Amino acid sequence: GNFTNTGIISANANATGSYAYAYGVDTGDIGSFTNSGTILANAKNTNATDGSAEAYGVDAWNIGNFINSGTISASAISNATDRAASAEGVYAYDGIGNFTNTGTILANAKNANATNGNAGAYGVDADNFIVNFTNTGTISANANATNGDAYAYGVNAWDIGYFTNTGTISASANVTNGDAEAGGVKAYSIGNFINNRTILVSANVTNGDAWAEGVYAGSNIGNFTNTGTILANANATNGYAGAYGVPAYDVGNFTNTGTISANANVTNGDADAGGVGGYSIGNFINTGTIFILVSA
Question: CB of 240 within 8 A of CB of 273?
Answer without folding.
Answer: no
